[in-house]
Structures are given as structure tokens and as C-alpha cells.
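A.,

Following up on our hallway conversation. C-alpha cells first:
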């Protein structure tokens, strides 16, 4: 159940333009979790990456976006059967769950080995995913470190 990096993120200034995209991470369970779904132009890449791991979008139980920037939420639309956690918001379809309070330090428990916690970041509602596996404890932190 160790995290699998499907795509490395990047942030760079080149030819007078700024380019950025987030890392996209898979936790193959159950439960199956995708963390940060890149830009809206990356859908085919994500589909192909999941297929290499014998998964489809319908197999994903949770989508966690470490914050709401466009390079982290762009392909959420692919995962129609999953619970979505975007920053501090937890939703399924048009239902937003109000019984969870990240702001008070409350952890969102996905499974015995996967939890989502509020963490400092470059928005006011960043979250990180903590995974415990046979490789130890891993934190998926989104844009914890960013360069311009």
C-alpha cells in the first residue's frame, strides 16, 4: 500500500513564462486513493497511468486534493464514484459533509493506514495525506516546497 508517484510535479520559469503542475500520487488499496489530479488537460495521462496499475477511474474510492489550485483539481471530474476531499471540503456529488472540522485539527480517517490532516501551505486550507505502509510513514504534502 505504499504511495506510487504517477507523475512528478514541477515549477519553473522558462522563456518568459511560468510553468507548473502538481505531482499525482496513487495509493493502491483498498481503498484506492488518488492525490492531486493535475490540470484539466491531463485526463488522458491519468487514465493511462491508472490502466498500468490495472485500475479505472471507477475503482478510485477517494480523491484528495491538497488544495484548490487549478493544477491540483483539474481532473477531479474523472472520478465520479469517489469521495472528494479538496482542501478542507469533503464532498460526494453535490453533498458537502459538514461533520468534519479540519480547522480544529481533526484528522479525516480514510482507513487504518491513511489519514488526511490540515497542514500549513500556500493557501489557508491545505491538507496532507499521511500513509503508513511497510516502507514506513509517508506524507504527501502538495506544494509544501515551491520555487519560482
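Then the amino acids I'd put at each of the 148 positions:
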Amino acid at each position: 500500500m505504499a504511495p506510487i508517484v504517477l507523475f512528478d510535479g514541477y515549477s519553473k520559469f522558462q522563456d518568459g513564462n511560468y510553468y507548473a503542475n502538481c505531482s499525482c500520487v496513487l495509493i493502491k488499496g483498498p481503498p484506492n486513493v488518488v492525490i492531486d489530479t493535475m490540470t484539466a488537460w491531463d485526463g488522458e495521462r491519468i487514465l493511462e497511468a491508472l490502466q498500468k496499475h490495472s485500475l479505472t477511474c471507477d475503482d478510485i474510492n477517494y480523491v484528495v486534493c491538497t488544495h484548490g489550485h487549478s493544477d491540483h483539481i483539474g481532473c477531479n471530474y474523472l472520478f465520479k464514484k469517489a469521495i472528494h476531499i479538496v482542501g478542507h471540503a469533503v464532498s460526494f456529488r453535490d453533498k458537502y459533509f459538514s461533520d468534519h472540522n479540519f480547522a480544529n485539527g481533526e484528522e479525516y480517517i480514510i482507513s487504518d493506514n491513511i489519514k488526511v490532516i490540515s497542514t500549513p501551505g500556500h493557501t489557508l486550507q491545505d491538507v496532507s495525506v499521511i500513509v503508513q505502509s511497510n516502507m514506513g510513514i509517508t506524507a504527501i504534502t502538495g506544494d509544501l516546497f515551491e520555487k519560482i
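The mean pLDDT is 94. Curious whether your intuition agrees with the design.

B.
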